[in-house]
Write a structure and sequence with these properties.
By secondary structure, the chain is an alpha+beta fold. It folds into two domains: about 35 residues, no CATH class; about 50 residues, no CATH class. About 50% of the residues lie in helices and about 20% in strands. The chain has four helices and four strands. The strands form two sheets. The chain has a two-stranded antiparallel ribbon with strand order 1-2. A hairpin with a 3-residue loop joins β1 and β2. The longest helix is centred in the last third of the chain and has 15 residues. The protein is extended and about 45 Å long. It starts with a helix and ends with a strand.
């Protein structure tokens, strides 16, 4: 893991510090708790809009539809979605 992190450009001292300590431990445990509460047992798993769950690798069209559905339910005015993604208008 350290080798990959350093190859990706992360600072070796920073990597050592994170891997040997608990810097992100609380955040990881909070994510694990949320996943358990949502019934997530594997990865990848996508949570969209706090209520849609998509398990496993999904085609981009499925992810786009889930995001569009969540945005439509929230009634985000001034947002449009197209081939290049979703954007606020103005």
């Amino acid at each position: 893991m350290k080798k990959i992190a350093v190859e990706c450009g992360l600072d070796v001292a920073e990597v050592d510090d994170v891997l040997s300590g608990e810097r992100y431990g609380e955040d990881v445990r909070a994510d694990e708790l949320q996943a358990a509460q949502l019934g997530i047992h594997g990865v990848p798993y996508f949570v969209v809009g706090g209520k849609y769950g998509l398990s496993g690798a999904q085609p981009s069209e499925i992810l786009k539809q889930a995001i569009t559905d969540a945005l439509n339910e929230e009634n985000f005015s001034g947002m449009t979605c197209g081939a290049d993604g979703c954007h606020f208008d103005g």
